[in-house]
Design brief:
single chain; 9 helices; 193 residues; mainly alpha
């Protein structure tokens, strides 16, 4: 890429790709500059340093994740929407582990903050699914946190090849979605054993 044509978006996208390859914790300005064929000081024309780059990577990741889950749940409801959301979430995390890691613990300042606004779009998708189950506004944040913990755990374990014991993981996924679906519907869940 010619130096004169480098933009902030180019720097952030290359940073996200590098994070996916080497891991979020190993994202460094020197390695990014080398990837882009520029000297490290040239990057500071586009980002205010490593912390700014990491925040912008988080914004990119949450924006991409929001687009992926929104597309996946479009026109779906109930357990179909729940499963589509979970699959899209897990697929994104598995494909982009470094940029997803940038989202964990990234602080938001409130409406108007790019990260806040991108996160709100993901939460809106989740809320649409949960409203279909009759979850009211008083319990929405708890339900969203519960689903995020569940889907994050699934995705993080898949990305880290954490399911190595016997059994079909697709079957476990279907069981998990059924379990959550029954719980959201208020049905009793029996576990055979």
């Amino acid at each position: 890429m010619p130096r004169g044509r480098l933009t902030a978006a180019d720097v952030v996208r290359a940073g996200a790709e590098l994070a996916d390859e080497v891991g979020y914790q190993d994202l460094a300005m020197g390695a990014l500059a080398q990837r882009l064929g520029v000297r490290a000081p040239s990057l500071y024309k586009h980002v205010d340093g490593l912390d700014d780059l990491r925040r912008r990577v988080a914004v990119l990741a949450v924006t991409e994740l929001g687009e992926a889950v929104r597309a996946a749940i479009q026109g779906r409801a109930g357990s179909d929407a729940l499963a589509a959301f979970a699959r899209a979430f897990a697929a994104y995390v598995t494909a982009h582990p470094g940029r997803y890691a940038a989202t964990i613990g990234a602080e938001v300042t409130g409406p108007g903050d790019e990260l806040y606004d991108a996160s709100a779009r993901v939460l809106e998708s989740m809320a649409a699914i949960l409203r279909g189950y009759g979850v009211d506004d008083d319990e929405m944040v708890h339900a969203q946190r519960t689903l995020r913990c569940l889907f994050h755990g699934l995705a993080a374990l898949q990305a880290a090849n954490g399911f190595q014991w016997t059994g079909d993981t697709d079957e476990s996924f279907d069981w998990m979605i059924g379990f959550v679906d029954r719980g959201l519907r208020g049905e009793k869940t029996t576990v055979s054993g």
